[in-house]
Design brief:
The chain is α+β, with helices and mostly antiparallel strands. The chain is 39% helix and 23% strand. It binds adenosine monophosphate. The site of adenosine monophosphate (AMP) has 11 residues, from strand 1 and strand 2.
Amino acid sequence: MIDRISRVLPDLRDDELPVFIRFIMGRIFPDWSPEKLGIGPNLLYEGVAYVAGTRKEDVVERINRTGDVGRAVEELLGKKEQTSFFAEDLALLDVYRDLTSIAKTGGTRSQREKLRVVRRLFSNARPLEGRYLARIMLEDLRIGVGEGNVREAIARAFSVDPYLVEHAFQAKNDLGEVALLAKAGEERLREVRIAPFHPVKMMLAQQGSIASAIAENGEMAAEYKYDGSRFQFHKEGGTCRMYSRRLEEVTDALPDIVEMLQRATDHDVILDGEVIAIRGDRPLPFQNVLRRFRRKHDVASLREEIRMVPNVFDILYLDGGTLIGLPLSERRARLQEVVTDHIAPQVVSDDPGEIGKMYEDALAAGHEGLMLKVPGSPYTPGVRGKNWIKVKPEVDTLDLAVIGAEWGEGKRAHVFGSFLLACQDEGVLIPLSKVATGFSDEQLQEMHALLADHVVSQSGKEVQFEPFLVVEAGYSEIQKSPNYAGGFALRFPRFVRIRDDKDIAEIETLESIRERYFRQPGSGS
Ligand code: AMP
């Protein structure tokens, strides 16, 4: 796969290269871009139905049969081919231009206008093109090309050091742009710097314990683990922006946090932190913060109810310079020099007793636990490595993708009542469990509101979703199961919360489920 991709890249023009790179990863816009296509499956089916001269129900029926939107579209366009002929060839950039125009279409007439463009695209598509076009529109290409493959292919195509490709990607967060730089030569890749208003992937943490972290690393920098929402704050001159953990811009949803951080520094900075909600002096559960992120309107009234507080724990950029290569201890020193307020307290110690005490304090104050960080470690964007260790009370939960549901019954007949959850194996979703307990009525309403527009197929009472939503689920035990493709199932699964700060790529892997299974007492290992 890497080889094939790398052979195509050198022949692409500069304007085609980034588009091609994103398309083969099933994306249209750079990850950091706020732009969204804004086409739900329904609009797509309607467009395809029109072009194929059939009804939307037939499209849905065919998707149910093939289990794949792409193949269904291909079949439908194949039938059409005998009766009509193409108007024009679809060129890469034309498709991109059309998709961009769809993304930019807003206002009251937007659905009709979008539909018009979707129809035009499919009426010009050959059946095989239709297969991939449909999947690109739903941002689920299913060709198994991941970021790692594409990074390798770029390095190979332009004979540059893969390490430099990776390095540039960490700062740019868009392999399309990185490919262009690689094409221009290693020097250009080397020059890449983090810059304001270009969000950087967030560094992530592994689970661990105080004793083993200190045994392995000696001194650790300990901070409270706040149960809120991750943010990245960018400031240059008088302009400030905030990004969520998924690198979506959330400036307008958090005006008070932006103001507080702006007041705390005169410098140009990129700061990493966690915003928490507080009522009185107790932190509120995570869901309250998320609701705020989501609710872009009505911000003023919410502002009074709940106080939002930023806790800054890292600095990635300062006055034109990248800091991510520096050890944490030096970044921390810079942070304390240039930011006057809202810095998360930190204790550096190799004494398990002292850190244990801090852990108790954190829990007593209503926080989630501790983060232990290796003081000599650089900031590695997007990496869930051993340099950041999270320590929290042992509650076994899994972050899983919602891939299907069944309609509820009785008074819950207008919402989904149970959900099918999946883990992943190298990007392929593997069903793991159904979950029907743990939901309040409001949460079921919320799940329905989030998912209703993402139904890709339906049979009887069951629906399948375009996978995008992550939920956290608890369980009592992992069991071997012949009923699920991954070979495992959850015993007593229960819904804990929606994790809409998490991306589908971050869900639990089959490998880690297997490991958890073998760690269980009595699993025979
Ligand atoms: P988890 O989401 O359970 O994988 O835990 C990692 C998350 O903890 C990060 O993405 C942050 O949102 C959050 N967090 C809370 N406090 C801190 C902290 N002091 N340092 C780093 N991350 C933190």
